[in-house]
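Question (not urgent): is this output format expected?
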Amino acid sequence: MRNLKVVEEFSEKSKKGFSELLYTQPNFLIGNNQLPQIHFYLLDTTANIGLGHIGFSLEEGTVFSPYRAPFGGFALADDLTSLEITFFIFEVLRKLQVQGVNSIQMKLAPNCYFSNTFLLKENLVYAGFDLEEQLEYQAISITDQAFELNLASMEVRKLKKCKEAGFEFSRLPKHKLADVFDFVKKQRQEKGYELSMEWPQMKLAQKVNSEAYIPFVVKDGKRIIAATIGILASDCVLYNFSPAHHAEYDPLSPNVLLTEGLYDFCRAEGLNYLDLGTSYLNGEVNEGLWQFKSHLGGQSFLSYSFRKAVS
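Got this back:
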């Protein structure tokens, strides 16, 4: 095992050898909640390289990772061994106990975010964490292949019709985020769905993480007909947050063209996955939505939620 140490602050002089999660970073937590933060970083002291991180929000003796976000938990370098992951987990537990923490609630990122999530899961169980829930996400792997090669034939036809109709995908400047948010909220409300965030929350999140929230649209001429907010949820993954389209365009399904644009953006930025999120409605899988994401090339990945009493 390398010469490892768990520290509570990451020095600017240290290199970062892992992909950071947006939802556990200090700036994000400032906008997310007003609770005290606790951070732990795994450091290779010989090479002066950070190999992992976990950020918590503390409330009444319980630490949450995340407190109010899709997921959090451990962010780990790909080359960490089982022994090194175990060391990190137990050092975090020891330090939390010293700080008087009573319990831990944690939801890991889907396993497309890190290559060693299954190994982490095994080590958390070994450390006494209780696995409470697993949720299925879908994500598209970003490769050198054209987007349409991953599509079901039905979606290929829809994509072709959108292009024949002259619809165009584009990334909008940051100051247009409010316009896209309003469009998405309106279209989803008309279909009976609510957004998980209100505009004041989104505005604050963008303020403290200005590069992480990106508005994307599909237009018919000058009219927005489909839109989404792309969230850089990690250094390697773009999260497709609440895409929506105008009901008038249902037969053409402009969300397919929207997804192609996101895929091409990810490829240009060197990202590994386009996260399509979950497909649950009232705790059950929405089969129609799951099938649509599958037709777009979405593969299934799991996210695990854990709880542990700190004694």
